[in-house]
Prior knowledge:
By secondary structure, the chain is mainly α. The chain folds into two domains: 5-47, no CATH class; 51-83. The protein is 70% helix and 0% strand. It has three helices and no strands. The chain has helices at residues 5-18, 26-47, 53-79. The model has no long low-confidence stretch (mean pLDDT 80).
Amino acid sequence: MPINHRYIEDFIGRVQNSLPGGLGGAEEFRESVRDNIKEALAGLLAKMDLVTREEFEVQAELLDRAYTRLEKLESLLSESGHTLPESNDS
């Protein structure tokens, strides 16, 4: 999943706004904190196995169709007199 940099920038902005200003060297400190947070968040998000909402919804729809087809196949089997062994999966 591509990283949405807008969320990272928003988070970093909130952190920066919470830091004290007006102190000697404070601006350099704020920029350093900003860069470190941005790098850490980007690394963390890159390691996560995330998908977009759209990708999730597509997969959910495919799974729903698969379950529907499975139910139809089970119904056809039971109508023909065959049965499937009970599964331990829940």
